Amino acid sequence: MILGILDAMSTMGPLGGISVIFDLDGTLVDSEPHYYEAGRRTLAEYGVPDFSWADHEAYVGISTQETVADWKRRYGLRATVEELLAVKNRHYLGLARTFARAYPEMRKFVELLAGEGVPVAVASGSSPEAIAAILARTGLDAHLRTVVSADEVARGKPAPDVFLEAARRLGTEPARCVVLEDAAPGAAAAHAAGMRCIAIPYVSGQADAPEFATAELLVRGGQEEFTARAAHDWLRTDGNATRETI
């Protein structure tokens, strides 16, 4: 009987068969300042000179395509969404290829999971080109080979599409997936996908947003309080059932 239980457990793989899906911007890498600067430069080219960091914060967690579509409406821009998207991506890629930096504890977490054979993926609102550039620049592409962009699915976050596609590509049921997210729309998307969520708010003032209340683990202090070991221990011991805030 005991041997049968052990055999069943071994077939589940590392961490009880859990797969881990990472958001990219603000979660794995400190790229929001680059997105802000790319947005500021883009809007300045089209006659909007005063785009502020506070303005940018409203778009954290929203796909690039949906962001520029909102700019077109909000600022009455004559350029097409496709043109705005191309200009912003050009500015962003120049910054990402030079300055992209992974959060040290997130790098440790990815390497820890990869070393144990845990299936991992990236699901991001960024373009495929931006994701590839960041992963190559940081070296995370060595471990994160399953990648989904919101450009590849019907709807961006807070819809669950990008996470569900990542689970499909990993060959994992959504209920066996844990998402790491820094933004409220991403936490909402994880919940809608039927996945558990470790939330690490990028904007500390948004930690009390109702979307983060659905996360099973909320790291209120963001990246300053996140550690690879604590996240791994939570996955191993509590990640299947409990909701926590640290």
Automatic annotation (TrEMBL):
InterPro entries: HAD-like_sf, HAD-SF_hydro_IA, HAD_sf, PGP-like_dom2. It holds the Pfam family Hydrolase. It comes from the Bacteria. Gene3D superfamilies: HAD superfamily/HAD-like, Putative phosphatase, domain 2. NCBIfam families: HAD-SF-IA-v3. This is HAD family phosphatase.
